[in-house]
Amino acid sequence: MGEFVALMAFSMSLVALSIDVMLPAFPEMTRDLRVGGENEIQLVLSFLFVGLALGQLFYGPLSDSIGRKPAIYLGFALFIFGSLMSMAATSFSLMLAGRFLQGLGAAGPRTVSVALIRDRFEGSEMARVMSFILTVFVLVPIFAPALGQAIVWFAGWRVIFGVLILLAVLTLLWLGLRQPETLPAEQRKTFTLRNVAAAFRIVITTRLTVVYTLVAGCVTGAFLGYLNSSQQIFQVQYELGLWFPLFFAMLAMAVGVAALLNGKMVLRFGMHALANRALLLLAVLSWLLLAATTFFGGHPPLWLFMLAGLAMFFCIGVLFGNLNAIAMEPLGHVAGTAAAVIGSTTTFMAVLLGFLIGRAYDGSLLPLVSGFVVLSTISVLMTVGQGK
C-alpha cells in the first residue's frame, strides 16, 4: 500500500510540479520572452490547465477501452514532448504552446490514476487512500518553489523543464515496472462514440456527482486564483523577495496536514460530513478575512493573512481529499469516463475562475479574498441537503 500511494502521488503530482516549480522563474521568463503586462505571465499556468482540462475528456474513455497503463503511457509521452518544446521556446507564444501540450500530457496520469484508484477502492476507503496520496502530493508545492528558485539561480529557468522531463521518465519507469494493470480485458468497453456517449450520460445525470463536481470546480478555482496571484502577493505586495518559497510552503503544508488527518478521520466521520463542514468553515473564514482586508484597505498585515490562510488551506486540504471521492462514489462501473468528466469539468471551471481572480489582482488582497468568499458561499449553498 505504501508503494501504491507513493506511485499514484508521484504520477498525479506532475501537474502540481509543473505549476509550482515555475513560480519563482516568472520575472526571468517575463524578461527573456518579452512578455507584456504584469499579469500576462500568468498565462503560463492557464495554458497548462486548458490542456489538462481537454486531455481528461480523452484519457478517461480511452483507459476504459485499452486499459489504465497504456493510457498513462501516452500521457507521459505527450508531457515529455511539451516539456522539450517549452525548454526550447524563444517566444512567449511557443512557450504557451509547449505548456498546453504539457497539460494535455499530464492529463493522462492525472485522470487515469483516479480511475485506477477507483478500480481498487470505493466510498470512504477511496477517500482515505486519496487523502494519503494527497499528503504525499502536497510535498510538491512545499518544496517546488524552492527547487525552482535554486534552478533559476544556478542554471536558468530553461533547466526547470529538463528536471520535469527527468522526473517524468523516472515515474514512467516506476509505473511500468511495478504497477499491475487494474482493468481486466473482459471488463473493457469498446471505444465507440455510442459507448462513450452512454457513459457520459450516466455521469451527467447522477445528481450527487454533478453537485460535488461543481463544488470541486469552485474550490479549485479559488485555489488556482491564489496560485496565479501568489508570486505577486508575496514578492511584490509584501516585499518578501527570496523568502517567497518559504511562505508559499507554509500554506501548502496546511493542505498536507489536513489531508493526512482526513485520511484518519474519514473512516470515523464519513466523507460527506467532513466535506460539508470544511466547506462551511471555509466560507466563514473567507468572510472574516474579507472584513479584515477591507478594514486594512486591501493590505492586511502579513501575519493576519498567513493565519487566515493556514486555516483556510486546512479546509481546502480536507475538501481535496473528499470531493473527488464523493463525486466518483456511484460510478465505479464507468470509472474511467467518470474520472474524465469530473476532472475535466473541475479543471475547466478552475481555469476560468482562477484566471478571472488572477487577472483582477490590483496590488491588494481584495480580488483574491472576494473570489474565495463568492465561490465558497456558492459551494455551501449547492451542498445543502446533500450530506449523509
Structure description:
The protein has helices spanning 2-20, 26-32, 43-66, 68-87, 92-120, 123-137, 139-154, 158-178, 193-204, 207-237, 244-269, 271-295, 302-328, 335-359, 366-383. By secondary structure, the protein is an all-alpha fold. It has a single domain (2-178, 196-383), classed as Up-down Bundle (Growth Hormone, Chain: A). Helix 4 (68-87) packs antiparallel against helix 5 (92-120) and helix 6 runs antiparallel to helix 11. The mean pLDDT is 86.
Quick description:
With 388 residues, this protein is mostly helical. It has helices spanning 2-20, 26-32, 43-66, 68-87, 92-120, 123-137, 139-154, 158-178, 193-204, 207-237, 244-269, 271-295, 302-328, 335-359, 366-383.
User: How much is the radius of gyration in Å?
Assistant: 20 Å
Which blocks of ≥5 consecutive residues have pLDDT under 50? none
The topology string of helices and strands comes to: HHHHHHHHHHHHHHH
Strand content: under 5%
Largest sheet: number of strands, sense, barrel closure: none
**Which whole number gives the mean pLDDT?**
86
What is the fold named in CATH at topology level? Growth Hormone, Chain: A
The first-level CATH class name: Mainly Alpha
Look at the structure and name the CATH superfamily: MFS general substrate transporter like domains
**Approximate shape:** globular
> Which structural class should the secondary elements be placed in?
mainly alpha
Number of domains: 1
- Distance separating the two termini: 28 Å
Q: Return the CATH architecture.
A: Up-down Bundle
Q: Count the beta strands.
A: 0
- Secondary structure tally, helices: 15
